[in-house]
Amino acid sequence: MDDPFSFVLLCLASFRLTRLIVYDAITDWVRRPFHEWTEQEIPDGSKQVFLSLKGSGLRRWIGELLSCYWCTGIWCAAFCYMGLTLWPNVFEPLITLLAIAGGAAIIETIVSKWLL
Question: pLDDT tens digits, residue range 17-44?
Fold first, then answer.
């Protein structure tokens, strides 16, 4: 990482990859073996949905990892950085694509808050 631009690209790429893994519906199949959503009625009569982790040991640890933005973020950042360091020809296009998507997501969030 020789320049500030590369650092920003890595930041945006790891941001987008982390959100993809932890929150996006398209990767729900990755989280499903480790997470279970349960609905409970609270005293006022409304219903609230809670995330429960499945299993124990390694399965539970992975479930905790996949439910924590900060935990997953450090692994995504390490994956992006190490990949770029070890296999730049493979990871440069991936990092660029994720960074563009991450920047677009941030812009969309800002625009939607200002216009609504």
Answer: 999 999 999 999 999 889 888 888 888 8
**pTM (predicted TM-score):** 0.83
Distance CA 39, CA 85 (A): 44
> DSSP code of 74?
H
Q: 23-31 long-range contacts, Cβ below 8 Å, gap at least 24?
A: 23/69, 30/66, 31/63, 31/66, 31/67
Beta strands (DSSP E) in 35-112 are: 35-41, 47-53
